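Consider the tokenized backbone below.
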């Protein structure tokens, strides 16, 4: 059954492309913005609409009930965020919602597929750049059907590192984020960057434009597809404490190699985040 998931993979690419077209079109009209967990955690009708389109198409293709879904906007509405052994789609309909709202030109559709809690493939469509990144376990990573590969830089002094500050404005956490960035910048590295979307950041690692991307506070839907793409492009994924990558832990570093990853990890000031799969607190 070597090719069991090929149809699902090909279909995910089609769905991501169609979703990206909806996002592009929506960006031409007035965008109505609402907030979720706090005033800087933005959501638009497009996020919700695109998630419905993606999940609707997948259910129609693969049958209701056989596959599970973890989608950013469904979880925001109270759906569970638990990865089981069942075939599960992990979806961020609009990664980079803040960028989308502001017209900052990096917005991605991120679709991953896991079976037995293992990621089988990931598809990221950077819809404003019109770049389709994809990877399937054991079969390499691609951008617009061209193979991609992480950079071979091992000298941290010759690296560009990406991080993001997320949407949590807790002063102690923000302090740790900026202290970490300051320490990394002063290693020194060539530069620090951030595109505003975790999915795109991971594609930049996978295609060799940057050596590493790390973040604390991201969610499984931000990084699931990117995790497959980085790994298949020859990169590594770790927890920010150097332990094994855990999709639900809300923290990760993706890098071109272990030398770069371990050097960055030395500087990261870790803070707590509630796991994505933590039981929902009753109010
Ligand atoms: O909410 P979206 O735009 O799907 O995801 C973004 C997170 O909100 C933000 O906290 C994070 O920094 C960014 O990397 C992520 O993609
Ligand atoms: Mg996201």
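A designed sequence for it:
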């Amino acid at each position: 059954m070597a090719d069991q998931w090929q149809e699902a993979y090909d279909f995910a690419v089609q769905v991501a492309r169609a979703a990206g077209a909806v996002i592009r079109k929506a960006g031409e009209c007035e965008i109505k913005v609402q907030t979720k967990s706090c005033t800087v955690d933005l959501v638009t009708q497009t996020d919700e609409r695109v998630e419905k389109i993606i999940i609707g198409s997948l259910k129609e293709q693969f049958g209701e009930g056989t596959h599970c879904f973890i989608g950013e906007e469904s979880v925001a509405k109270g759906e569970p965020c638990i990865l089981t052994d069942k075939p599960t789609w992990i979806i961020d309909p609009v990664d980079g919602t803040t960028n989308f709202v502001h017209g900052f030109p990096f917005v991605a559709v991120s679709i991953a597929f896991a079976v037995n809690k293992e990621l089988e493939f990931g598809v990221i469509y950077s819809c404003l750049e019109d770049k389709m990144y994809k990877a399937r376990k054991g079969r390499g990573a691609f951008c617009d059907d061209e193979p991609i590969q992480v950079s071979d830089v091992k000298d941290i002094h010759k690296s560009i590192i990406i991080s993001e500050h997320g949407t949590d404005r807790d002063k102690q956490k923000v302090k740790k984020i900026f202290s970490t960035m300051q320490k990394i910048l002063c290693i020194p590295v060539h530069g620090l960057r951030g595109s505003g979307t975790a999915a795109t950041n991971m594609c930049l690692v996978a295609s060799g434009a940057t050596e590493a991307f790390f973040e604390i506070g991201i969610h499984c839907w931000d990084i699931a597809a990117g995790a497959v793409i980085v790994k298949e492009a020859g990169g590594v994924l770790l927890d920010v404490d150097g332990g094994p990558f855990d999709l639900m832990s809300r923290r990760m570093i993706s890098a071109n190699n272990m030398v770069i990853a371990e050097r960055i990890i030395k500087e990261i000031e870790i803070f707590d985040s509630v796991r994505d799969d933590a039981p929902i607190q009753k109010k």
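The domain at 6-147 is CATH 3.30.540.10 (Fructose-1,6-Bisphosphatase; Chain A, domain 1).
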